[in-house]
Amino acid sequence: MVTATKAVAFPHLTPTTAIAWLKAVGLLRLSGARGYWDNCFYLLDVSAENLVENLLNYQPKPFVSPWNSYSLFNKAEGLAAVLASQSKRYRLMREGYTELQDAMQSLDTAGQSAAQKKLTLMADLPRRVSNHHWLEWINAVGLMTNTQTGPRFLCNDLLGTGGNVGTTDFCTAYFQVCTQLWDLDTGEPAVDTEAFIRASVLGEPQPKTLLAQALLGHTYPAADYFDDLAPAGTSLADYLDNGGRSSQLANPVDLILYLEGATTFTGKAIPRNEVEEGGQEYTIAAYPLLLEVNSGSADTSDRTGRAYEVWLPLWEQPMDWEDFQDIVTTDLAFRLKNQVVDTIDMLDVITQANDYCGELSRFARFGLWTRKGQGKYLIYVGLATPGKTDFGAELRKWRLQARPSEKQPQAQYNLLTTIQKTLYRLQQGNAEATTAIRVLGQLEVLHSRVQTKVPPVPQLKEKWVEAVYQEYPIVEVELAAALASTAPTHVNSGHAYPFRRLLSSARYDKKKDTWFWSDEHHDKLKTFSLEALCVSLLHLWNEVWERDKYHPAHGWTYQASPDAIAAFIAGRTNDQLILELALGFALCRIPSFLAPFSHTQPLPEPYKYAASLQWSRNTSLSAQTVNALLAGSTVPLSRQLAAMQKPVVLPSAITIGKRCALALVFPCQPFHQLGEAHA
Description:
With about 675 residues, the protein is α+β, with helices and mostly antiparallel strands.
């Protein structure tokens, strides 16, 4: 982080409000200095007084949206006043308006609706106008693209629906603000202009520096609808008029900085017939950070099935405005047909773009909340920090099919929402693999009981299990991995039936390389508790051994260490965690090595003899022996051993018999031979 003594901090410009971020980028542009973000915005090599002086010398630009009914081009007196002005300050605006007026005379929009007029002017005017400032504006407002149904206008939500919010035109308000701050005829600043600048730029509290703008509320909702979103401790009298609605007070300089910041995102669509072979069909650099997210992914979304966010980039190393614009209009431009559609995709694209991921360290997320009749409001959701994980990529296709929907049952909707949020945090680089695995396992069990259009989760790689153990190197993870690795195998065919097949109705079609829900699954395993799962699994193993000679000892991948089993038998484990992890690990390939082999704790003799039968290839515990152990009796176990000519002396009853029996579901290595039990 920069520690230069010349850095000027702007404590009022934090990344938690869109207007503050846009003002900061506007300041970066107009100051010509370098800036960066920490907990607030900083500028280097410039003084506060230099900033004020720069803005006092500001030259208004020819921003105008001629398709809007309330633009200056539809208000003859405003346009005439600009064209008649002789001041040097308004030269840029005057020259741009003159060229634009000449270009429009050759276009016929008579009788067209507002929407048709916008399409006509957006498509034709950029080819007829060369003014850089106006082209920057129009290419930031939105882009024209060609679709099968004709031309389509894609708007940049930072600038409303086309340079306007409702009937309020940004550029008309901008013109009014500029003429209020600087005389149109002389170009001289008004008496209060410096006070307005100091209040906006430096955050100095000044009396009478807030005016009714009726425009910036969507970037700072508290200034628009105070009753919903006002900061704690703020007086209602500061915001509400006699009608009970906010007066939308704002500093006029805020609007200038806002538009200067928003027009950073400028770009253009490339028509199909101009694209080189193999090149991009379209770039959408005007608003590369607008994305659709899964319902429930943003805090501002609900069960409507669709939600949108705007991501505003932050950077920690000093950068000037030109470098910043170059990044956002090139590196952050995505192909339209492959546009990112959710938060995880966004993080994945950013993380893998090595050219700039080191420049843009974080992103401020804003959900687009539609207020009835009042357009979209940018509500702060949180900071996104790209990580170095590619976990989300493995589930990309499935995630897009597993979106929460208002039509889903509440339990399913809640799980899918939790999964989407968890995968997003995982993609950020946070330690969330354990949470993801637990929730994915719960969803698998739920989907095995209900009809759903959401496909099964594809088989996940070993790295998921390894990541969970890296987060929590505990015996519960060991035991869950061992349990999930069991795969009863037919002794003749050698065909294995993984734990997942016994657990759920998810099946894999090898020819189609796809997972699907089968109607042939019979819910034999109980999953409401670890004890119920272990008991039902032991009974199922015994049943298939007696009938078909399938045996769990022929297919396991991972063996639990004796110390992990000892902790389980002693009751020192979190059984609910083992259950949830095992359900999740059933979706994964299980690695053969996970934890260091540990054998420092003693194991009960009855367990050692029972395990030697359970996990040897040619033997298996009888159902009577298992049931007796569950009840605390070792008598059937002693009889079974004697029948095998391996007589031993065991206590007839043990208090830990149930835990010893339940522990038999975990594959173990040291007790393959009965002779080892005597040791």
